[in-house]
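Deliverable D4.2, example record:
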Amino acid sequence: MPFIDRADAAAQLARALAGHAGKRPLVLAVPRGAVPMGAIIADALSADLDVVLVRKLGAPGNPEFAIGAVDETGWTYLTPYATVAGADSAYIDRERAAQLDLLRQRRAAYTPGRDPLCATGRQVIVVDDGLATGASMIAALHAIREQKPARIICAVPVAPPQTLALLQPYADEVVCLESPDRFRAVGDFYRDFSQVKDAEVVACLAGR
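Output generated by the structure prediction step:
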């Protein structure tokens, strides 16, 4: 199994990203799982840390299967198979509204009293703990691109080859440690893939 836990995956990613140390990068983690990873990477690279808030849109009857994703502005990415999965426009509108409401709640909880760190003109490293469809990462990369960063690096421990191909137009660089042809779920590549709680996210971001 490639990774013991998220801390192990983050340490390996930090080594792969070592060339960005000293350039004052901005590490943006996708909550919740990637935030403790982002903290480890940010410390290793002497980088700033924040979150990029996106939510996947779950398929009808199967919320864990992403048919797309939405960012905080409401911009929505839909996978090519969204309608095949039974998601008509009315369902997508309802699901988008529900996830936007959750994003507002998370922003208030995670970064109370301050604005998100600005990505304009900076080298930005967007971190997740692994990708399946890539929908959430595409929404995250799009959201950051709108801020006109100098460069966007997508950094993940594991993702299938077809997902990495989908990401290429959205990032200037993609760093992925493992890209197996046989891929079922991100958690299969971790010995410990315990759920990260909101309190841990808040603790990682406190004082940053």
